[in-house]
């Protein structure tokens, strides 16, 4: 399959009082049409900034894309005009956010908000736009969509609101949907519903999805491929199965191991959780070496000297670590 | 904002107040406001030493325009009194009224707002009904009634202005208290055994203070305008020379001598502008969203 | 009440709201008849979704919300009947760790003062020893004591949560109520805090009441687990029994909904749980879960099931188990 979106060597800098913070450092990603790509990492790792860069929404100042390209079917979005980006946003690439309450305008009916979104991008009548809104609400599994379309956001529950957000995002039949922590604010049972919904919609419409999350569980549920980010770098990427069962980078391993996973048959034996020692480094004080080196249990002298490049370990799996073989052997 | 790393470097503590002070120093509006206020204060407090002329003394022909005589560089009023001397000597009274009225406003406002917001329920209902009562009274008329009922001294004028302006501060304080009382550190304070008094004054109030300080600064400016308004209507203290009084006394001669009202008006404008700019600067300083990340 | 029970809650009810002028009475049944006990030195986890009343239960144990009915006993003190000064004194034995590390510390105080405050307020130790006590508390939670003069905004989320723990430990409490203490933290930091909490429990013999929506965390940390739904406990058992042999359909659905961090193999079948939890204002008659329950029978909609022992102290309330 061909990549519809490909990011090459993207660099985003933020000017802060403490100095220049490189929030994205030469990241490269490919999104193939119809796949779900997960981007996983802790807060501040740059995963949300990746999404904002694609949407052309990097807050500027203080942020600035200083290098690299984001090409959508060969068109570089970094160079695109503001007017063009407006067309792209919502029309070709749309986004859903973590907090469904604050992303909907509380003073308008949800149906109107979806219709408005359609009217912005397509030349159709108001009645048709409304019909589309109701159709979309049906599609995202909202019961009694005609009635719910007339509801205001506060009249809907959190799960419903997130469904409305998804309906709005998909209303112009975008080719790419970016979901930034779409289920973090929701209860587990509702979260499971949203996962199922996204899965179904993806299969039905063929929309490619970029799913941004801190939760490996969510990745396992949805993503076909995963990119793991740390301090502005992509440090490992590959198929979801490979990353989950055979993680190569010490950070990925730590990230998977430090979460207490739910066991179906727990035993009396409860070892302490494995920890990643230390804290995430400040982006203004990154040295020339590997960003993870100060916390890495396997670090060697070269790790602090030179930043490792991301290299393929097999056809689909790439890692940025000098000690891959060592780690694998352990 | 820097987060402490596990490294061993010694870290400087950053008090939120000092942070705000630093941000204030970087605020263009705030520094300009401070500069203006310093000028005004120097003019009125140091001025008498360099220009020892009695503002009540008749020194030249009435309604002499500025620049016409060396005895009165800024001209004279309808009685032939020196305008420049009036501007210098009218300052302290004006500033005094502004400050005292501001302090009264803030004190009543914080007390009422804090108790209403903290205790809620019946206390809140009762205090807010009183606040609304004062809020619906036409402020200027009510102040005029107060001043006419008593002798129009500078104290009564300050008190009258304070009494009519506190409801806004009370509402602001109450809103801040309602917001902060639900934050977890208030519950935390309670669970380590803090009493209500401590929670109100030591935990919630310091955190509610930022918008209140901004409001207080603006209140001083508004009180100065209020004083000018009362004096203009002839309700100021006739024995204290103030800018408002100058305007009030000269209002009938505005067509014969523009300088009689314009010059004191300009002083009021400058002072109020100074307070507003300082308020603006404080607002920027306390608003973390506007500070860089 | 057995010898080694530290916290015992009997039929706790917390209702909010009431009649307003011109408006129909709207009573929120946040907690509606909850009973549980926690043995000394152990951890009881309360899990549930938003609106289940788990946080209100936690706050009620510290008397931070008004209690409508029921008793709360900590050791031999009935904390639910205390007022004013007695209550203030009694709070020394029970402390709380809050969810949000950003709003649980007063931003205008130095963290050293935050940790010292309970010592001053509760009059613990001699005045001149308190600086040393603060120093020791910092060490205990894994923070460098030199950082005591900094302000909360200078710390990361995990460090702030450590400060919150130090403050809670200052009064040498027996019981610590933890309201989602790690849910706002990044996963790597979460592991550090969970390990610290376990270490502190082992070292100091602490008892935890642990509120969480994260079943993985609860399974890791807790000895006993209670599942709450709309203000009531629907199932309660020891850790192994609850997770390996869940009885209540809600518990089953909850466990099935948790994403597993391993690749999908296509064989897993989720119990389809539709809709959102109903509001605690207009409670359904009968079983509160009946509206969403995949296996509900007619009886469920009319008669509320009782929480009964289903063997070995495994409690569950469901008609289908009777």
From TrEMBL, chain B:
Record key words, sorted: Cell membrane, Membrane, Peptide transport, Protein transport, Transmembrane, Transmembrane helix, Transport
First-listed, main subcellular location of the protein, grouped into a coarse class: membrane
All copies of domain ABC transmembrane type-1, residue ranges: 91-279
Keyword NAD: no
Database matches in InterPro entries: BP-dependent_transpt_permease, MetI-like, MetI-like_sf, OppC_N
Topology of this chain in the membrane: Multi-pass membrane protein
Pfam families: BPD_transp_1 (PF00528), OppC_N (PF12911)
Family: Belongs to the binding-protein-dependent transport system permease family.
Protein name per UniProt: ABC transporter permease
Organism name: Sneathiella sedimenti
Automatic annotation (TrEMBL), chain C:
Mode of membrane association: Peripheral membrane protein
UniProt superkingdom: Bacteria
Alphabetized GO MF terms: ATP binding
The protein's name in its UniProt record: ABC transporter ATP-binding protein
Annotated ranges, domain ABC transporter: 7-255
Keyword tRNA processing: no
Transmembrane segments: none
